[in-house]
Design goal:
The relative contact order is 0.09. The longest helix is centred in the last third of the chain and has 79 residues. The chain starts with a helix and ends with a helix. With 432 residues, the protein is an alpha+beta fold. Helix content is 25%, strand content 39%. It has a six-stranded mixed sheet with strand order 2-11-9-4-7-6. The chain has three domains: 150 residues, Immunoglobulin-like (Sandwich), CATH 2.60.40; 84 residues, Immunoglobulin-like; 87 residues, Immunoglobulin-like (Sandwich). A hairpin with a 7-residue loop joins β15 and β16.
Length: 432
């Protein structure tokens, strides 16, 4: 009976798409999976939710794939309508749905949730694929994103790793970190001793974060605050490093956003570029610190900064009225949740007139070197062509000589052969 209902619904969805002339919609949507927990114990239940961004749907059919050795499907008996639309085949959970009111109950955001039960320790991955249709029966262009769940306590190798990396700088005024590691993945950007601000998003069931550090000078002292009893929203973890002689100190800050709605905390830039200026290094949204060289004539910069999440806001400061020498440009991204933030920093060096003249001189010098190299190459070409032509002529002459020798030998062989035949016939006549 259950299989029959699913088959009827699937046929309806396909017919619905066909009779409304199914075509690809212009909008691009993201279908992504989320979990109510990022870490669970063996035997604990997990709720996986299918979410849709940038579109509304009136029909869908999709499959969720999971690892049978790690988890098993645990249907919620209180949601009979979902059970009737769901069909399990091995490690694939199929689901079919359509809006019976023809668009009045179109869905967006959270589409449907399923429960699973954890079985074996390790990392369990859930993936999704399928088709999603709008109220006009058009197939929506979609991008799919998976989710991973840690089952059982993940072994923490950080203390061992840190013990193997000891600082060796003996300068008494050194307050730099050599190593900064967390027991959670996702810190942005990658650690560098001169970068003092970092960002991390964690699920709501995370209470503490292990922070392990190594100082460049082994005698420097460290003080870590804010990494325990983490609250929902923004938490700041600070690592204060004080040099052995107490004259220098440096504070490294990790801005931690605690939430289950990861998309609402998205502060990544999708695009960052500056007109007529190159970023160093090239843009990567996981890197937050850049340097640029600005011509003296440019007093302001035309900066294009587009966030990954269209609901995030962007604020750019320091890009106008550039002074000669060093300028700091800050691009502040505020996530849709309104409080999660990330700052991209650009150190801009606007050249002085003297530096500009030197720069132009270097360019001219490079241009002359390229032109000279081109002239040398061009001058050497006829010689090479002559050599090549001589070689070709010699090869042709050699071929001609060989052909003539073969021809003469052939003629000689023919003549001798004919003479031998004549002599043999003559002898035979004499005998007779």
């Amino acid at each position: 009976m259950l299989k029959k209902r699913i088959l009827i619904i699937l046929i309806f969805v396909l017919s619905f798409s066909y009779f409304l002339n199914v075509s690809y919609a212009s909008n691009h949507s993201i279908v992504y999976l989320t979990s109510d927990k990022k870490e669970v114990n063996q035997g604990e239940e997990i709720e996986i939710t299918v979410n849709l961004k940038n579109s509304k749907i009136s029909a869908c059919n999709f499959s969720i794939y999971f690892e049978e050795s790690k988890v098993e499907f645990a249907p919620d008996l209180n949601k009979q309508d979902i059970i009737e639309s769901t069909h399990l085949i091995g490690n694939k959970l199929n689901f079919v749905w359509f809006d019976k009111l023809g668009g009045e109950e179109a869905k967006e955001g959270e589409i449907v949730s399923f429960k699973f039960k954890s079985k074996e320790k390790g990392l369990a991955t859930f993936t999704i694929e399928g088709q999603f249709y709008n109220k006009n029966g058009q197939l929506i262009e979609t991008e799919f994103k998976e989710v991973q769940i840690q089952i059982g306590k993940e072994e923490n190798n950080l203390p061992k790793q840190v013990q193997e990396e000891q600082g060796t700088n003996s300068e008494n005024s050194n307050s730099n970190l050599k190593v900064l590691r967390l027991d959670k993945e996702g810190i942005v950007p990658n650690f560098e001793k001169d970068i003092q601000e970092y960002y991390l998003t964690i699920p709501q069931d995370t209470q503490n974060i292990d922070v392990l550090v190594v100082t460049e000078n082994p005698d420097a002292s460290t003080e870590i605050k804010g990494n325990t009893n983490l609250q929902e929203g923004i938490n700041d973890i600070t690592i204060k490093v004080t040099s052995p002689d107490k004259t220098q100190s440096k504070v490294y800050t990790i801005h931690v956003s605690k939430t289950n709605n990861f998309e609402s905390t998205n502060t990544n830039l999708e695009t960052l570029s500056i007109q007529n200026v190159l970023l160093n290094p090239p843009f990567d949204n996981s890197y937050t610190n850049y340097e640029i060289e600005v011509p003296h004539i440019m007093e302001s910069l035309n900066i294009l900064a587009i966030p990954e999440n269209e609901k995030a806001t962007v604020k750019i400061t320091g890009g106008d009225n550039l002074k000669e020498g060093s300028n700091l440009i800050k691009i502040l991204i505020t996530a849709p949740d309104g409080f999660t933030k990330k700052t991209y920093n650009i150190k801009a060096n606007r050249r002085t007139l003297e530096q500009e003249a030197k720069y132009e001189e270097e360019l001219e010098k490079q241009k002359e070197e390229l032109e000279n190299a081109y002239k040398i190459e061009k001058t050497s070409m006829p010689i090479n062509d002559t050599d090549r032509q001589l070689t070709e002529v010699q090869n042709k002459d050699n071929k001609s000589i060989i052909i003539w020798i073969i021809a003469i030998l052939s003629i000689v062989l023919v003549v001798f052969g004919a003479a031998w035949i004549v002599i043999k016939k003559h002898r035979n006549r004499i005998r007779k």
